[in-house]
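ARCHIVE CARD
CATEGORY: sequence design from structure
SOURCE FIELD: tokenized fold
FIELD CONTENT:
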């Protein structure tokens, strides 16, 4: 919307005509300067009066019809009235959108809030009261870290430094009646926090864990008996062509079942320890990497080139040594299993940036297609079923790695391309664990 310039030109003409009139009156009466001063004073008063009327009209909160002054002020009032009318329509539209947005967020079954850079609450919905014990009106503007005193949750926020990435934490609600999955999503210089009630899912998951652990434990004894009898059969009938092949195949499958059960029991123990940190201690990573290298050489049996690269300035990592060793061994054994003879495997321990420490295993194997990378840590997920079984894998190794890293508030990064090998990196937060 443009202001009509013709009104300004007309006002200039009026001013010129008024000045000419004042000059003439001044010469006629003989009081030139007095007449000119009085005329200009009255002209200024006329503008000041309309300016006062304008301020009074604009300061009114309600949209009302403008006054009807004469001259340029009439055009100014009508121009501003059109602007105010448009602004009023936009305000009503925005208000309507905000009301609908508020209704939509209240209908969402998850607790949702917007956090500032220093974790101060800028907005939250009503579900935050029942899920997190927050009060929508009273707690806005306060830092969330001052309202939720869970050490696990505070550590989760303080360790968040992966810009552009979403992170998830599972925790109990402050009143211990719910189990929540908390997602922190960065956008711009703010964060969207979403807390979802997964109590029923957690209960089902606990039932599944108990079932797997109990079944695995019960299967261990009969499989041990079967393996013992198969060894006896192999000793007495191993040279008989009629039975040798069958006995050898049964032993292979029995051994494979024993490895699966051992991995399931290990996975159950790791899952049970995820919320416990009493076993955390300072682990000498330089010594551990050397031990892992010797084990890798024994597993490879000369079929691969195995090397290590250790940053001696960061020798220690706080964690559960037995769990870390299990996770790292799984990564190394996978690299050996899926790297052809003559390939190279590199084990690294180094600093990444200012706050991350990384244990990394790189191989020159066949590589993995991008579509499989997100699912590699699922239990029993296989890229190629036939190849995995032939190599002796149980399909549980990366699931164990995932849960060990969850216990240590770390994450697993995977880079791989078919034909170019793979890199598995365990990334730890130095601020929390070193």
């Amino acid at each position: 919307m443009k202001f009509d310039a013709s009104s300004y030109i007309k006002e200039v003409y009026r001013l010129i005509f008024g000045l000419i009139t004042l000059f003439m009156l001044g010469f006629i009466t003989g009081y030139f300067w007095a007449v000119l001063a009085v005329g200009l004073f009255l002209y200024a008063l006329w503008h000041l009066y309309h300016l006062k009327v304008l301020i009074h009209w604009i300061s009114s909160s309600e949209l009302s019809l403008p006054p009807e002054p004469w001259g340029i002020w009439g055009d100014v009032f009508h121009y501003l009235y059109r602007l105010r009318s448009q602004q009023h329509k936009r305000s009503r539209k925005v208000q309507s959108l905000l009301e609908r947005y508020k209704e939509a967020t209240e209908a969402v079954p998850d607790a949702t809030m917007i956090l500032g850079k220093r974790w101060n609450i800028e907005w939250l919905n009503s579900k935050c009261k029942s899920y997190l014990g927050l009060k929508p009106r009273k707690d806005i503007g306060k830092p969330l870290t001052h309202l939720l005193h869970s050490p696990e949750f505070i550590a989760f926020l303080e360790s968040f430094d992966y810009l552009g990435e979403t992170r998830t934490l599972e925790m109990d609600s402050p009143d211990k009646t719910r189990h929540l999955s908390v997602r922190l999503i960065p956008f711009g210089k703010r964060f969207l926090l979403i807390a979802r009630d997964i109590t029923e899912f957690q209960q089902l998951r606990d039932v599944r864990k108990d079932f797997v652990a109990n079944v695995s434990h019960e299967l261990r004894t009969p499989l041990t008996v079967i393996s013992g009898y198969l060894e006896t059969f192999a000793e007495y009938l191993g040279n008989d062509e009629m039975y040798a092949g069958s006995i050898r195949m049964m032993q292979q499958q029995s051994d494979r079942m024993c490895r699966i059960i051992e991995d399931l029991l290990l996975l159950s123990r790791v899952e049970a320890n995820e919320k416990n940190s009493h076993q955390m201690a300072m682990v000498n990573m330089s010594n551990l990497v050397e031990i892992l290298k010797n084990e890798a050489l024994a597993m490879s049996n000369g079929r691969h080139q195995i090397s290590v690269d250790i940053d001696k300035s960061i020798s220690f990592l706080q964690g559960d040594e037995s769990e870390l060793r299990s996770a790292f061994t799984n990564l190394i054994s996978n690299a050996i299993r899926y790297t052809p003879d003559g390939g190279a495997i590199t084990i690294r321990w180094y600093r990444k940036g200012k706050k991350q420490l990384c244990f990394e295993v790189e191989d020159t194997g066949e590589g993995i297609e991008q579509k499989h990378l997100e699912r590699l840590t699922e239990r029993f997920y296989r890229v190629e079923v036939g190849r995995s079984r032939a190599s002796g894998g149980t399909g549980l190794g990366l699931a164990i790695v995932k849960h060990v890293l969850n216990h240590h508030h770390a994450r697993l990064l995977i880079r791989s391309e078919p034909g170019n090998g793979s890199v598995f990196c365990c990334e730890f937060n130095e601020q929390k664990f070193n």
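CARD ANNOTATION: The two ends are 63 Å apart (CA to CA). The chain has a mean pLDDT of 81.
SHELF: design records, drawer C
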